[in-house]
Amino acid sequence: MDLHQLVAMIDLSAVRADSGWDDVQSVAALAREYSCAAAFALPAFTRELVGLLHGTSVVAGGTVGFPSGGETTAMKVAQAKELLALGCGEIDMVQNIGALLSGRLGQVEADIAAVKQAVAPVPLKVILECAYLPPDLIAAASEIAVRAGASWVKTGTGWASLGTTVEHVRLIKQTVGNAARVKAAGGVRDLDTLLEMNRLGAERFGIGHKTARAIFSECQRRQRCNA
Questions:
Q1: Which residues are bridge partners to 145 per DSSP?
Q2: What pLDDT is attached to residue 224?
Q3: Do 90 and 119 meet the contact criterion of CB atoms below 8 Å apart?
């Protein structure tokens, strides 16, 4: 994989609780420098992120329901609509994790479907937060996301103490097949992990700006060595 192929799969993110304005500016600058796929910030910084990315090919993404997905559906729909109005070209939403763990699968599906209806045709990525889920619920949640119209199934927010693993990616891809695409986020710390997850079916990666810069540098180093 060369650097051009790599950066085309990267969603740079400043979406943790401690992500401040400096982080948002760094994400936007790195995304512009490398022409990454997208950049994400928490909603309070979204308007400014859109401005920083204006005139580039980088998509400004919006986050809905971070980090628990426990808001009411009406709140998620309103948030998604506001983010679209601000100029977001993709929406990453957190499924209702508590409802899923409680066996309320219909509630989870209806929640996703309502947001999908509100944002269509803008791509919707549904975040499972795999760190909290046993394998059977990861599979069930992946199926629910597909039925509800998700364009992508995403592994995590990056907020959980345990990160995404290659097994999470493998399980989601095996479950969704070609019905949705897979995004890995939270715990993608090095190039080798990213490449293995890509081999298993992940096509986009949510990464912070510091980790992303290190991964880009490693990719460039390997390209020079193989030249």
A1: none
A2: 84
A3: no
Selection from 155, 72, 73 nearest residue 117 by Cα: 73
CA distance 36 to 9: 7
Token pair recorded at residue 214: 């290190």
The active-site residue out of 92, 111, 116, 125 is 92
What is the identity of the amino acid at 107? Q
Phi, psi of 103 (to 5 degrees): 80, 10
What does the angle CA 10 – CA 13 – CA 17 come to, to the nearest 5 degrees?
155
> Helices 191-199 and 166-176 sit at what angle, rounded to 10 degrees?
20
| CA 130 vs CA 4, 34, 162: distances in Å | 29, 29, 9
CA-based nearest residue to 96, from 113, 84, 121: 113
C-alpha 162/C-alpha 82 separation (Å) is 31
pLDDT at 227: 63
pLDDT, one tens digit per residue, over 178-190 is: 999 999 999 899 9
Q: Given 116, 125, 173, 183, which residue is catalytic?
A: 183
pLDDT at 162: 84
Degrees, nearest 5: CA angle 67-50-48 = 80
154 is known as an active-site residue = yes
76 is catalytic: no
> How many C-beta neighbours within 10 Å does residue 170 have?
17
The one catalytic residue among 76, 125, 154, 173: 154
Write the pLDDT tens digit of every residue in 109-135. 999 999 999 999 999 999 999 999 999
List, for the chain, all residue ranges whose pLDDT scores fall below the cut of 70.
227
Residue 81 catalytic? no
